[in-house]
């Protein structure tokens, strides 16, 4: 999974500082993603990578690394 591509989508969707986007960065606390932003982010990632992110799985993804692992685990 291309971290730089995921990072680009996160920065674009959340309008956050690219320097803050690291695998350890927490979506809510560090990147200030509220629940609406998280849904927008999941839709952008689904569109880019062709992976469906289940609604019930979204709250379990706390960090950028969690998102990347999920995308890797569910990539076709």
From TrEMBL:
<keyword id="KW-0443">Lipid metabolism</keyword>
<comment type="similarity">
    <text>Belongs to the acyl carrier protein (ACP) family.</text>
</comment>
<keyword id="KW-0275">Fatty acid biosynthesis</keyword>
<dbReference type="InterPro" id="IPR009081">
    <property type="entry name" value="PP-bd_ACP"/>
</dbReference>
<comment type="pathway">
    <text>Lipid metabolism; fatty acid biosynthesis.</text>
</comment>
<keyword id="KW-0276">Fatty acid metabolism</keyword>
<feature type="domain" description="Carrier">
    <location>
        <begin position="1"/>
        <end position="75"/>
    </location>
</feature>
<keyword id="KW-0596">Phosphopantetheine</keyword>
<keyword id="KW-0444">Lipid biosynthesis</keyword>
<dbReference type="InterPro" id="IPR036736">
    <property type="entry name" value="ACP-like_sf"/>
</dbReference>
<protein>
    <recommendedName>
        <fullName>Acyl carrier protein</fullName>
    </recommendedName>
</protein>
<dbReference type="Pfam" id="PF00550">
    <property type="entry name" value="PP-binding"/>
</dbReference>
<keyword id="KW-0597">Phosphoprotein</keyword>
<keyword id="KW-0963">Cytoplasm</keyword>
<comment type="function">
    <text>Carrier of the growing fatty acid chain in fatty acid biosynthesis.</text>
</comment>
<dbReference type="InterPro" id="IPR003231">
    <property type="entry name" value="ACP"/>
</dbReference>
<feature type="modified residue" description="O-(pantetheine 4'-phosphoryl)serine">
    <location>
        <position position="35"/>
    </location>
</feature>
């Amino acid at each position: 999974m291309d971290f730089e591509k995921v990072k680009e989508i996160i920065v674009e969707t959340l309008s956050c500082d690219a320097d803050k986007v690291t695998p350890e960065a927490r979506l809510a606390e560090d990147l200030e993603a509220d629940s609406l932003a998280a849904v927008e982010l999941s839709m952008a990632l689904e569109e880019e990578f062709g992976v469906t992110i289940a609604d019930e799985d979204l709250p379990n993804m706390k960090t950028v690394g969690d998102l990347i692992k999920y995308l890797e685990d569910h990539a076709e």
